[in-house]
Amino acid sequence: MSTVPGRSQAISHRSPEGEGAPVSNAPQVHISEVGPRDGLQSVQGVMSTADKCRWIDALAAAGLREIEVGSFVPAKLLPQMADVVDVVRHALTLPGLCVMVLVPNRRGAQAALAAGVHKLTLPVSASEAHSLANVRKTREQMVEELRSVVALRNAEAPGVPVEVGLSTAFGCTLQGAVDEDDVIRLALACADAGVDEVGLSDTTGMAHPAQVRRLFTRLRAELGDHAGAAHLHNTRGLGLANCLAAFDVGVRSFDSSLGGLGGCPYAPGASGNVVTEDLVFMFEAMGVSTGVDLQKLIAAREPLKAGLPGEPVYGMTPEAGLPKGWRT
Question: Which of 98, 172, 243, 264 is catalytic?
Answer without folding.
Answer: 264
